[in-house]
Amino acid sequence: MSIQSILNIIMNPKKNVLIDLDDSVFDFKPSHAKSINQYIKGFLGIDLNLQPKHMVQYRVSKTLPLVEKGITSADIHNSLRYLSNTPEFTNLPLIEGFYEFYRLVTNNFKDIDRFFFVTSRSDVFYDDHITKTKKNLESRGIRFNDNNLVFRYDKENFSRENNIECTIEDNLEILYNMNNHIYKIINNQPWNHMTDLDKSNLSEEDYNRKVELVNAIDSCDRNLRIDNYKIFLNS
């Protein structure tokens, strides 16, 4: 599968996408209410009407599931991360009453067309975690079809599961980097793809392969367009 094909899967605005991000501690400051309102309303068309009184420190165990149409929740995740003005990955913003927020966001998206897990922590990424998460969401009225895709990350390789014939190395890396990059493009912020490529931890072959990968992603930039708050790949 080509990078173009993967991007088409990721950014198809006609599909609903559920993304499960790994567990973290979230710190939502009262001053973030206005910014979060603007971001969610702009990209999802949903007015949450958050007030400063809604913002409290909140602990989420294992999952941060969000559902949107046309963009992935990694965009929201990263945006909230930057809005929080905290450099630590484990100090991210979320809303008091997590499932109430989830209910608001998913109100119009009851049928999940694609189901992604995005995480860099292999220790929390086991089949039982996937199963428990899906059951948890289903108990709250979120339905899954039979063709959900699960992107799974582990320390050895990237794989696409659920009996999908094609297994492609780096598909999750492309997904995550493109989400991150799209956010930066939207906000006119430069992003160095090479930031996370620590050569000391990679063989020369792996390092060169990753350089080729991010260069290929860069070449897709000119095709990115934003229309009616939806992200899609211009053919």
Task: Explain what you see.
- The protein has a three-stranded mixed β-sheet with strand order 4-1-7.
- It has helices spanning 3-10, 33-44, 73-83, 98-106, 127-138, 171-186, 204-218, and strands at residues 16-21, 24-27, 57-60, 64-69, 91-92, 111-112, 114-118, 143-144, 151-153, 158-160, 224-227, 230-233.
- The relative contact order is 0.17.
- The longest helix has 16 residues, at 171-186.
- It has one domain (3-233).
- It is globular, with a radius of gyration of 17 Å.
- Mean pLDDT is 39; it is low at 1-29, 42-46, 53-129, 144-199 and 216-235.
- With 235 residues, it is of the alpha/beta class.
- 35% of the residues lie in helices and 19% in strands.
- α1 crosses α6, α2 runs antiparallel to α3 and α3 (73-83) crosses α6 (171-186).
